[in-house]
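Re: the 268-residue chain
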Amino acid sequence: MAIRQTRTAVQALRQMCVHSLLLHCLTALNCVTAQAAPQVLVIATNEAPPYISENPQNSFLTDLLGHVAKEMGVTFEFRFMPWPRCELAVDNLQVWATMPYVPTPERNSKFLFSHSLFAKQTLLFYYNPNGANFPKTFQRLSELKPYRMGGVRSYFYETLFAQAGLSLDLANTEELSFLKLHAGRVDMVPAVDNTGWDIIRKNFPVQEQAYFHTLETPLAVGNNYLMTSPRYPEAQALMERFNDALAEVRREGIYKDVAQQHGLIVQD
């Protein structure tokens, strides 16, 4: 009887050891798997070639951020949606960030901004096939009241135009904005210089491209940034890692190389 009980106890002990060993192995395997799978950070964005596009050949930023992600040890997932939804998705914590965005007083009170992604100037484009008299420069936006202004909804200049009392006819995308300009529905549209000329080259015949011009006075000169919510988990730490990785990509000369591949002349 005692021998049978001893055997039973030994078998139970063996089962416990096997179970413990399996549990230990599974735990170790989970740890290795977790370490092997990089964190996925979702970025909301929209078409603004040559800076950002679903077409990799026209997307400087997705190309650049592939290198940034490698430095950070993460994976970026890009989701394309209308610009107003991009900002809303960040505010609702549905995504980690959006780009490229310009700070405004309202956004500064709600969001965090990265170091500069790229410097740019926003120009006012006009289409003039009939030789109409357009101004070359302006001192104040209010001087442009005689002209119907186009543009894209939710862009930084919407508030500027409204405060200056300008007539607005906004579109959902940059391409639609330029189509309105070409059709004569608006007189001027703002766009980042490289983006505007890229849209013109891709959407209008060569003989009509010559009729597009810009005012000499830029609407704005500044930088565009990645924007995230301070309420996102580990928001500050992630932004610091992003900025450090971006700085490293610049130091290594990768930033300038990627920009040149996309036909951009940028500050490195």
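The first helix runs from residue 2 to 36.
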